[in-house]
Amino acid sequence: MRFLPWAIALFAGTLAGAVTCAGFVVKRSRIALTGLAATLAAALLVGATAAVWAQSGRADSSIASVFIALGALAGGYALASEVLPSVARHRPARPALDGVSPGTAVGVILLADAESDQYSATDVTRAMDTLERSDVPLPPHVARPFVYASERARFRAGGGSPARRAVDAIASALAERLRDDGIADIVEVAFCTGDGSAAETAARLAAKSGRHIVVAALTVAWTQAFDVASTEVHALDPSRSRLTVETTEPLWASHALAVRAAERAFAAFGNGGIVDGVVLVAQGNPWQIDRLFPDAMEQTTYLAQRIRAELIEAGLPAERVRQAWLEWEEPDVREAVRHLAALGSTHVAVVPVDLVFASLATAVDLPMAVERASVESDVRVAIVDPLGDDAAVISALRRAVAEARRRFRLDDGARDD
């Protein structure tokens, strides 16, 4: 019995540390539960310390028990942060191509790299796993719970992510256009990460529409996420004996997108002022990922240069158009706006380049960057909304799907021969 209070202090400290780590990671709806567990652990810890004092009557014993508890708390936090990736790792189902409809319809999957509607610890773990596999340096494990807390706060600031709702709106507009033109009757949405994966959607669509599936890439550049999703779709039928999949090119080469983005830039202030400076913002990636997928950077830069050319042709001086990055790369938005302010710009439009639809990047990150830039410079800054379901985006996707369908016909003709 004499050592029981010490054991309880050790256990309570370890538990309190683990619960503290969990408090940084869990959804906000579960914070109250972790708070209750922390309160119970703290009460147990205080009780154990008091029992040590009552049992020994010595101050040094009580002080020692406190230090043991603090050490246990630190150890519990460190242990929980180490096992966190394993606990919060998404374990995706492996879809199987159970059956393919004998129909001849063309099914279309609109594939987007859109975050989940609400914060999910598994999504954060997946993102960090991707960075780690690409040799991107990450914080030590004891600091990673703060990454989860930061992402949770980001979702809260945006009231959840609008990304998947925006993709659904694009899919609806595309489906209507494809039906009207007689190109395809079925359009389903899939996502590179999270629920509703491309492979699951492809297996389900094949059972409804038939062996021909077009994966329409809703992106400016072919990124790592799209590469992984496309590989998973092709893995459903490696021999291509039952399923024929055509993937469209990203939208980087669309002249209509460049023209529309330039038009929106000039209309950023409405009647409130004439735009005399433009910042073209791309999302950015670590250089380690750019090294693995150089085409993504080239394609994003190409579209940015096309938009720049349209702005210059419309009369904006070349030095008043700057490219910036939302994260990882330089210059950032703040630096680009300050540069334009130094050149005399008073009304600056910030135009997303590779952010095709609304997301937390456009709802939270970009406004925060613009706010910092506005505080530091005497200019008015307006953020141009992503193109979303704009007619230019729908037309570009429609042309890409039609071209993929034409390739199906060519392949079927070759088989007939």
Word description of this protein:
There is one protein chain. This protein is an alpha/beta fold and 417 residues long. It has 3 domains: 4-87, no CATH class; 106-117 and 161-248 and 392-416, Rossmann fold (3-Layer(aba) Sandwich), CATH 3.40.50.1400; 253-383, Rossmann fold (3-Layer(aba) Sandwich). Helix content is 57%, strand content 11%. The chain has helices spanning 4-25, 31-56, 59-87, 121-133, 144-157, 163-180, 198-209, 224-234, 255-266, 287-292, 294-313, 333-342, 360-376, 391-416; strands spanning 106-112, 186-191, 212-217, 244-247, 277-282, 321-325, 347-352, 380-383. The strands form 2 sheets. Strands 2-1-3-4 form a 4-stranded parallel sheet, sandwiched between helices. A 4-stranded parallel sheet has the order 6-5-7-8, sandwiched between helices. The N and C termini lie far apart (88 Å).
In short:
This protein is an alpha/beta fold and 417 residues long. Helices cover 57% and strands 11% of the residues.
Given as residue ranges, the uncertain stretches (5+ residues, pLDDT < 50) are 413-417
Helix/strand-derived category reads alpha/beta
The H-and-E topology, N to C, reads as HHHEHHHEHEHEHEHHEHEHEH
The helix tally amounts to 14
**CATH architecture verdict of the largest domain:** 3-Layer(aba) Sandwich
**What's the gyration radius in Å?**
27 Å
Distance between the termini: 88 Å
What order do the helices and strands come in, and which of them pair?
Elements: H1 4-25, H2 31-56, H3 59-87, E1 106-112, H4 121-133, H5 144-157, H6 163-180, E2 186-191, H7 198-209, E3 212-217, H8 224-234, E4 244-247, H9 255-266, E5 277-282, H10 287-292, H11 294-313, E6 321-325, H12 333-342, E7 347-352, H13 360-376, E8 380-383, H14 391-416
Parallel strand pairs: 1-2, 1-3, 3-4, 5-6, 5-7, 7-8
Helix pairs in contact: 1-2, 1-3, 1-5, 2-3, 6-14, 7-8, 9-11, 12-13
